[in-house]
Amino acid sequence: MDEAAPTILLTNDDGIDTTGFRVLYDTLSDVGDVTAVAPDSDKSAVGRAMSSSVSVEEHELGYAVAGTPADCVVAGVEALVPDVDLVVAGCNDGANLGAYVLGRSGTVSAAVEAAFFDVPAIAVSMYIPVREDVTFQSISAEYDAYSEAARATEYLAKHAFGAGVFDHADYLNVNAPMAGGEHGPLKDGERAPIEITEPSTVYQMDAVREGDHVQLHDRIWERMADGDIPDRDGTDRRAVVDGKVSVSPLTAPHTTEHHEALDALAETYPDAW
């Protein structure tokens, strides 16, 4: 790979015309040859859902795909962008934090899909506080709000290969605080440091039945906005709440371990019927 000018496939799950996507496109264009292969509409939280056929239209940034983020990576690597050196997914509107989120996120799933092609990847998300005084849509439309996410992504895209990062990690899950202002943890002009983290294992989903419906709710987001979280130092969620860019080096395949208890069950299985 030519480290000075890598071929970068850029995708996301919010859709090709979102502000965060354009920010990363503009930023990474100073790093290498960027081609967008992204959903033509919002495909958030679809995980690694896969289609058997997708339509593709040319777009000013590359290609708009009527499919999922995983579709975009497969189509891009195999058919649309030859010799991809790096897949970048993002910038997502909202954080992708915690171990339980990894399989749900279309952004992270695009990075996982790339890993199965042996293509290094970076998933990038920006944390937007969920509070009554903050309108999610207004923040996600602000180009400058993504500056910390863009700065960290540019740095990693430039230096991760030379540093040997991808010799050990299949992909990086990057979560950045929104840039300075009254709503984020950073003051105007303040820059966030990078902290190497691991996904938090704290899980606070709950469900409440209301007649014929069950409301599903992740209580951690309100706690994050208040700065009152149960996550320990060194975790992705704690880093972002503290105003740092969280970078979690991850591997894609599920791990397996030898289980003597399962061996015993397998041995007794023939005699169980």
TrEMBL record:
Cofactor(s) this protein cannot do without: a divalent metal cation
Binding residues for a divalent metal cation: D13, D14, S44, N92
Main location: cytoplasm
Keyword annotations: Cytoplasm, Hydrolase, Metal-binding, Nucleotide-binding
Cofactor binding mode and count: Binds 1 divalent metal cation per subunit.
EC number: 3.1.3.5
Catalysed reactions, as listed in the record: a ribonucleoside 5'-phosphate + H2O = a ribonucleoside + phosphate
Gene Ontology annotations for the cellular component aspect, listed alphabetically: cytoplasm
GO terms of molecular function: 5'-nucleotidase activity; metal ion binding; nucleotide binding
The keyword Metal-binding belongs to this UniProt entry's keyword annotation: yes
Segments forming domain Survival protein SurE-like phosphatase/nucleotidase: 8-183
Metal-binding in keyword set: yes
Function: Nucleotidase that shows phosphatase activity on nucleoside 5'-monophosphates.
NCBIfam families for this protein: surE
Protein name in UniProt: 5'-nucleotidase SurE
Source organism: Halapricum salinum
Taxonomy of the source species: Archaea, Methanobacteriati, Methanobacteriota, Stenosarchaea group, Halobacteria
Encoding gene per record: surE
